[in-house]
Amino acid sequence: MARTKFLRRNTGQYSRLGKKRKKLQKWSAPKGRDNKMRLKEKGYPRVVSVGYKKDARMRGKINGKEIIRVENPADINKASRDKLVLIGKIGKRKRAEIEKIAKEKGIMILNLKKTKEKTKEKKWINN
Q1: CA distance 47 to 30
Q2: pLDDT, tens digit (0-9, with 9 covering 90-100), for 17-31
Q3: What is the largest CA-CA distance in the chain?
Q4: What integer pLDDT is reported at residue 120 of this predicted model?
Q5: Pair type for strands 61-62 and 65-70
Q6: How many other C-beta atoms can be found within 10 angstroms of the C-beta atom of residue 83?
Q7: Distance between CA 34 and CA 97 in Å, rounded?
Q8: For the purposes of burial, counting CB atoms within 10 Å of the CB of 49, is it exposed (0-12), middle (13-18) or buried (19 or more)?
Q9: Per-residue pLDDT averaged across 41-63, rounded?
């Protein structure tokens, strides 16, 4: 079953509420006496309520895989192929170490940032 996308009222009308701007599309409970969405009338967007919760076995997982947070290179050794890795707030050097170990083991990292190695180029001015 596909996950239901809950949107606030009038997201398709105003750009500040998310019209053509996915990041601004957030849930907000419908308020107001005559609000058709609050009354759960047919033809209006769905409202968050009991019954939309995920299955207990799938909660907190992505594609059925458990997520592990890694803070240092020693933590990546605890992970296996059947688990996904989230790298915490760490510096560039440790991040590169973790990425290297994960690549060797074949572990997938969710928040992998492509690090650009800056090459030191000397610009000589020819006169």
Answers
A1: 8
A2: 999 999 999 999 999
A3: 77
A4: 57
A5: antiparallel
A6: 14
A7: 57
A8: exposed
A9: 90
